[in-house]
Fold this sequence. Notes:
Layout: E1 3-9, H1 15-33, E2 49-55, E3 58-72, E4 75-87, H2 96-110, E5 116-120, H3 126-131, E6 135-137, E7 141-144, E8 152-155, E9 160-164, E10 177-178
Parallel strand pairs: 4-5, 7-10
Antiparallel strand pairs: 1-2, 2-3, 3-4, 3-10, 5-9, 6-9, 7-8
Amino acid sequence: MSISVRTVAHGELQSSDLARIGELFDAQYQQEFGTWTPDSPYGYSPADFHTLVFRRRALVAHVGFQIRTITVGDEAVTIAGTGGVLTDKAVRGAGYGRAAMESAQLAMRTEREVEFGYLGCREGVVPFYESVGWHRIHAIERCISWLDQATNIVTENAPLLICAAQRAIEEWPRGDIDLHGTPW
Length: 184
């Protein structure tokens, strides 16, 4: 597997990188959700950082994360809200998604203010995230809807996962979670 992996701050992406990210997402989601945009990707929160995996010159995997302070119980926690996790359908199962996620987690750990990585997902992909070091937590989550950016959403029992960054998994506080914005 000959690949190159890099994590880039959003503001440092080249126009060619943005075009490749858009092509990767549009190939998967355009028919259902329309054209991908970097500032409001399908209504979700935009990424501050992008981990990009290239096979030769083709972008084959992406992970984005945004640094944000959320509330867990009564505690403010700074997280890397993770989303935009996608591997090109043609190469799924070849390890590119794993390479992207592991590199994104390493980047999260180098950001001094990031205490934990954080993501929500569908049940079917929980085993993948657990295989690359994410840990499932159970909490009620509050956020603003990605569909209209106005409606408050309260979710129970949805898959929520964290990974260690500056703090160990065992230090995750107990309590309901308020994302203070849209999810990733």
